[in-house]
Amino acid sequence: MSTPANTPPVTPPAAPPVTVADIEAQEARLVLSRFTHEDAWTLGGLLAELARERELPVTVDIHLDDRLVFRSALPGSSVGQDSWIERKRRVVAHYGVSSFLVGARFRAEGTTFEESSGLAPELYAAHGGSFPITVQGQGIVGTVTVSGLPQAEDHALAVEALDRLPRG
């Protein structure tokens, strides 16, 4: 079906903003049956490949039991992303949920993380991109963190890779 020549094309509606409930549902869905060092490399490789294909200037970081097990800095990324990664990871460690969810919860309450958390902003950042790696029956065993894009995109890339991670 075509539109008359003088009628502007219909622009699809923008994607709805990610809500607190949406992020909570992602975290509930992305509980793994296991997560090993090999799984960390698989996840890291998947993230690096997605970033390479899309020419995204990101740094990818995966920690398992507070130990760095994977890091990749893609072309165009910067050294400043390293501090963002650490600040986001600290938020996950402190709150036990994704850094994006923490920031969203503060915004939903009409405030900001920086104003209301009582945590030093030079050490903690409730910006999207760090996601807890949760194993059923064990809880959080690590983090996957992406930095270099707007926070919703960092978060979405981490979630996409976790969704694509082969389940064993």
| Outline | globular
Poorly predicted residue ranges = 10-14
H-E order: HEHEEHHHEEH
> β content, as a range?
15-25%
Protein model, in words:
The protein has 168 residues and is an alpha+beta fold. It is 43% helix and 18% strand. It has six helices and five strands, in the order αβαββαααββα. The protein has a five-stranded mixed β-sheet. The longest helix has 18 residues, at 37-54. The termini are far apart.
Q: What brief labels describe this structure?
A:
168 residues; 18% strand; alpha+beta; five-stranded mixed beta sheet; single chain
Describe the structure in brief:
With 168 residues, the chain is of the alpha+beta class.
Write the layout of secondary structure elements.
Elements: H1 20-29, E1 31-32, H2 37-54, E2 59-64, E3 67-73, H3 80-95, H4 99-108, H5 113-116, E4 130-135, E5 139-147, H6 151-164
Parallel strand pairs: 1-4
Antiparallel strand pairs: 2-3, 2-5, 4-5
Helix pairs in contact: 2-6
